[in-house]
Design a protein that fits this description.
The chain contains 16 helices and 20 strands. The protein has about 500 residues and is an alpha/beta fold. The chain is globular, with a radius of gyration of 23 Å.
Length: about 500
């Protein structure tokens, strides 16, 4: 049986249109609107999905508020909530093939990436936070004032959480948001991207099957300008968690300030430097440079889109990178031999092609790619593209392209490199390739980035903090750090004299 003919996936896609999950019930949009989600490898419609509008967001927030105020989830014994989260992780793992195929068909990512990376880490994320449910402890303080006091802290859930996730890693982003929020006892309104809503809707089915109480998780696909805006402005939402572009992150922040000053966490854009020193293991470094930029077709906020190579090995490293690029198998993500699939949409493809044109106009030297591959005209494909001798002031070196385009920039020495690498408004991730341990630590300390990879790239685990410096965001997801995003710290002081 071909992968695309999986009976469970076919059955999931057959039920049309896909509905919103609000208050434990599957519902049409209040105004009856739907939108199409398409296979970016072919441009063909996969499904019609109910389009959440402002009224639907209001209904979802009301359902979340009702469930939170009643304590149907937050007041469950911690061990019971932990069991539910662990069960969700098991269910994702059991249906990994189905999730992987939906991700591939809806997003375009290679099926092997979805199956071996996205689904397992999503399952692991729920299990990781299942372990934290019973460990949300407070502490006591020694008060020095006259008298006798018992002072202690409590971690309490924030309340109703609005979560807005992007289209580049739909299942994984849903897991990163939902698992810690639920572990802390919150109720959630999740808005997946209109580009890739299907895996979030399947996850919602699993959440129901795991017997999460009605109204605790509401899933409302819709467009940012309407559904996302209403969620960010809503006066009864206590916290917004957003992953997406820096531009939209600023809009979300202003919406919070204009409404009820709700708490905000942001995981935003990046223009990450991936740095190769002359003493690096060049084969590993080139492989890491390729993976750093072309994984998920470059549609990654942490993509190593600025490739800094020390002049001594610059030409050799580029030659080796070009060999790898030329051997890349481009095609529909559902084909198991595909290494690089299509971009998520026609709009995104045109955006990336526009930046390639800008790079040519700015005088960068096009070494590979630069257009669409032959024979794949039905989908939104762009060849892996390498620009050499890029000036750090060029737009392709400064602006987030979010596609398979890398800017190779030579550097002379460590001091020269650090200044160039930090010359950006972003600060999400950086990569360093060197055999010199002292240099690795010096440069890691000097780089202004939330994560610095040394002799590796795109290493992500539920235990490791994720977030950026500067305009790459506020707060840290994953690890115990995400618990701070979804809890309030309360201090209780008792006079015991």
């Amino acid at each position: 049986m071909a992968i695309a003919e999986d009976l469970e996936v076919a059955a999931f896609l057959k039920g049309q249109p896909k509905k919103l999950l609000i208050g434990g019930r599957w519902a049409d949009a209040a105004d009856g609107k739907t939108f199409e989600t398409v296979d970016p490898a072919t441009g063909e419609v996969l499904a019609r999905v109910a389009e959440a509008g402002a009224e639907d967001i209001d209904r979802a927030v009301a359902a979340a508020r009702k469930s939170f105020d009643r304590g149907t989830w937050r007041d469950l014994p911690p061990a019971e909530r932990a069991k539910v989260l662990w069960k969700i992780g098991d269910m994702i793992e059991d249906r990994a093939n189905e999730f992987a195929q939906l991700e591939t068909l809806d997003n375009g990512m290679p099926i092997n990436d979805a199956l071996l990376f996205h689904a397992p880490i999503a399952a692991a994320t729920f299990r990781y936070y299942a372990g934290w449910v019973t460990k949300l402890d407070g502490a006591t303080q020694q008060v020095s004032l006259p008298g006798r006091y018992l002072s202690y802290t409590l971690r309490e859930p924030v309340g109703v959480v609005g979560q807005i996730i992007p289209w580049n890693f739909p299942l994984l982003m849903a897991a990163w948001k939902l698992a810690p929020a639920l572990a802390c006892g919150n109720s959630v309104v999740l808005k997946p991207s209109e580009e890739t809503p299907l895996s979030a809707l399947l996850l919602a089915e699993l959440i129901q099957q795991a017997e999460v109480p009605d109204g605790v998780v509401n899933v409302v696909p819709g467009f940012g300008e309407v559904a996302g805006s209403r969620l960010a402005h809503h006066p009864d939402v206590d916290k917004i968690a957003f992953t997406g572009s820096t531009e939209v992150g600023k809009i979300v922040t202003r919406a919070s300030a204009d409404s009820n000053l709700k708490r905000v966490s942001l995981e935003l854009g990046g223009k990450s430097p991936n740095i190769v020193f002359a003493d690096a293991d060049l084969a590993r470094a080139v492989s890491g440079a390729f993976f750093g930029i072309f994984f998920n077709q470059g549609q990654v906020c942490s993509a190593g889109s600025r490739l800094y190579v020390q002049k001594k090995v610059y030409d050799h490293a580029l030659d080796e990178l070009l060999k790898t690029v030329e051997e890349t198998r481009i095609g529909p993500g559902i084909d198991p031999v595909t290494q690089m699939g299509p971009l998520v949409s026609k709009t995104q493809m045109e955006r990336v092609l526009g930046y390639i044109a800008v790079g040519n106009q700015e005088g960068a030297r096009l070494m590979a790619g630069g257009g669409r591959p032959e024979g794949l005209d039905g989908g939104y494909f762009v060849k892996p593209t390498v620009f050499a001798d890029v000036d750090g002031k060029m737009r392709i070196a400064r602006e987030e392209i979010f596609g398979p385009v890398v800017s190779a920039i030579p550097f002379q020495d460590e001091e020269d490199l650090v200044a160039k690498a930090n010359d950006t408004m972003y600060g999400l991730v950086a990569g360093v390739w060197t055999k010199d341990v002292a240099r690795a630590h010096r440069v890691a300390h000097a780089l202004k980035a939330g994560t610095v990879y040394v002799n590796c790239y795109h290493v992500v685990d539920p235990v490791t903090p994720w977030g950026g410096f500067k305009q790459s965001g506020w707060g840290r997801e994953l690890g115990p750090y995400a618990l701070d995003l979804y809890t309030e710290l309360k201090n209780v002081i008792v006079d015991i004299a």
